[in-house]
Design a protein that fits this description.
single chain; about 110 residues; two-stranded antiparallel ribbon; two-stranded parallel ribbon; disordered C terminus
Length: about 110
Amino acid sequence: MKNTDRFITKRQEKIAISKLEGISILCENDLYDFACLLLRLYDAKDKNTNCKTRPTLHGLANKYSWLTAVNSDQIEDMLKEHGFLVESTIEYDKDCHDVETITRMDDSE
């Protein structure tokens, strides 16, 4: 096996934040509202830097869980029921025009 055979390519989707509208955990539309707040906070934190931080749906579930004590697995299950991959990155709608491709090492051997 060549060294390059140990690398796999995986598509990492960007999820438009508006797709979270209508998903409610504790109150109406709370996951969307929380995601909006998180993006605004990340933008404020990244201001005057060369980086752009974005949460994944997994990260959103964990942060929501920490704040509300709702089990993060339940939140992730709900997201999966809506057809989302929890590895997907949340992005503003206007910035959600492409899909990133990431390559990682396959360590299944």
